[in-house]
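Protein in question passed on here:
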Amino acid sequence: MDESVRLPGTVTAEVGEIRLIPGPQGQTGERGPRGYGISSAALNGDYTLTLRFEDGTSFTTAPIRGPAGERGPRGEPGPAGQNGVGLDSATDITGILKGNGKTVEPAVAGTDYVSPSQLTEAIQRAVADAWEASY
């Protein structure tokens, strides 16, 4: 025989042979003292957390970072790049490369770049051209 009474909105909990039934709502108590909220929180370089409260006090936790986990397995290679060139692409092109967004080809020394052996001559030519253009 069930001797419990259930009121709308109440919860009945059973623990072994004991039945707990909440009673009716009690009267409102007196207002307690004002609490202090958190005004800021900062994660420090040593992985401690410093909480600053509205009353000017602060609290710093123990480190909140756990130990490093195991290294995961190596991921699968990604798709080829936009120009169809990826880490695993095979090509007979060697040296410095240039591209136009659609194709890749070898860069040409003296046209696309200055090689170290041509640097002095290129600087002299640039200075001479600038000198002539200024007159």
Remarks:
- Residues 73 and 79 are 18 Å apart (CA to CA).
- The longest helix spans residues 119-133.
- The two ends are 115 Å apart (CA to CA).
- The chain has a mean pLDDT of 80.
